Amino acid sequence: MRQFLFRLQLGVIIVSGFITIISLIYDVRSVSIQLVGHEIQWQWWALVGFIVFAGFMTWMVIRLWQDPAHIEIRKDYLKQHLEAVKDLIEQWKSDIHTPNVSRIGPEFSKVPVPSEDNPLFNSLRKHLPNQNMWRNYESWKAATKKYADSCKQLRTKIRESWTIDEVKIERYFEQPIMRLLAKQDKKLRYKLWVASGHNLSELEYQVLAVNDTDVLKNPNVTTFLPPLQDEQCSEETLPREYQKIADRFLQSDAAKELMGLYEKGLELETTMQDSLQSMLLASEHSKHTCEYCQRLV
Ligand SMILES: [Zn+2]
User: Fold this and answer.
1) How many angstroms does the Cα of residue 279 sit away from the middle of ligand 1?
2) For residue 112, how far is its CA from the centre of ligand 1 (angstroms)?
3) Which pLDDT value is given to residue 137?
4) Alpha carbon of 168 to ligand 1 centroid (Å)
5) 81: CA distance to ligand 1 center in Å?
6) One-letter-per-residue 3-state SS of the chain
7) Ligand 1 midpoint to CA 45 (Å)
8) Distance 281 CA to ligand 1 centre (A)
9) 290 CA → ligand 1 middle, Å
10) What is the model's pLDDT at position 17?
């Protein structure tokens, strides 16, 4: 607001100066064309009237600005604004979360950061002017994007590894392997169903679930014999083939590389979380102001 008053005063001076020059030019020209004296005086009176009016308006604005009631209102607005900024920083802090490998499905494109959609988010750069922190944030976003792409590629490779054409893979075929990679499960537990009237040599009449997720299924088969579980079926074709794929991928360089990218994302996430936490504790956001704050102080 102080800037506004300064600009207003500057505006009055410039406009007054401009009108003076125009009037003087008009004055000289008027003389040259021999206009009568009272017309020249009228121009000067208009100029004086304008300056008085502008000065009065400036004085009124300054009075209103210094009015105690108005000062209190501005303080309240500022307090609410700073609280909203603090809430946004806290939400942002919780948004910065690198998802586990089992959370990244085919539809995953990037880590959602809903706080970025908040209209106040742009003003955070003014409230938290620590450039190093902003660079870390961009690094975290780039690292998690690379990690998510790598994760999706690994999922595709796992799905493409299934070679028994007569048994179709399910939507979440690779999920039990990803959960094992994420250390959310310790081992693969199998459950195998065989359709009524068929036997274990007829693969297309079987359904396999791993850790309670259907991975192989024939949608046309609806009635089954009681399922075989774990040791009862682990040597059968479908569980055995699935286990082979899991073993191969869990030991692969691609899986190690993926976990390396995940660790990198976590590292940057921790750095960001620590920075934001220490800034919140030190109320850094209150020390630096945005354009909105500047209009209130
Ligand atoms: Zn602000």
Assistant:
1) 15
2) 25
3) 96
4) 57
5) 6
6) CHHHHHHHHHHHHHHHHHHHHHHHHHHHHHHHCCCCHHHHHHHHHHHHHHHHHHHHHHHHHHHHHHCHHHHHHHHHHHHHHHHHHHHHHHHHHHHCCCCCHHHCCCCCCCCCCHHHHCHHHHHHHHHCCCHHHHHHHHHHHHHHHHHHHHHHHHHHHHHHCCCCCCCEECCCCCHHHHHHHCCCCCCCCEEEEEECCCCCCCHHHEEEEECCEEEEECCCCCCECCCEEHHHCCCCHHHHHHHHHHHHHHCCHHHHHHHHHHHHHHHHHHHHHHHHHHHHHCCHHHHCCCHHHHHHC
7) 45
8) 18
9) 4
10) 60
Question: How many angstroms separate the alpha carbon of residue 10 from the centre of ligand 1?
Answer: 26
Measured CA to CA, the distance from residue 238 to residue 167 in angstroms comes to 9
Distance 292 CA to ligand 1 centre (A): 5
Given this model, what pLDDT does residue 159 score?
95
* pLDDT beyond 60 at 1: no
191-218 tens-digit pLDDT: 999 998 888 999 999 999 999 999 998 8
Ligand 1 geometric centre to CA of 134 (Å): 18
Is it the case that residue 177 has pLDDT exceeding 90? yes
Closest CA to 257 of 103, 118, 146, 127: 146
Is the model's pLDDT at 38 over the cut of 80? no
pTM: 0.73
pLDDT of 287 over the 60 cut: yes
Residue 25's pLDDT is 63
Q: What is the pLDDT of residues 126-141, one digit of tens each?
A: 999 999 999 999 999 9
* CA 83 – ligand 1 centroid, Å: 10
Other beta carbons less than 10 A from residue 78's beta carbon = 17
Q: How far, in Å, is the centroid of ligand 1 from the Cα of 85?
A: 7
CA of 87 relative to ligand 1 center, distance in Å: 13
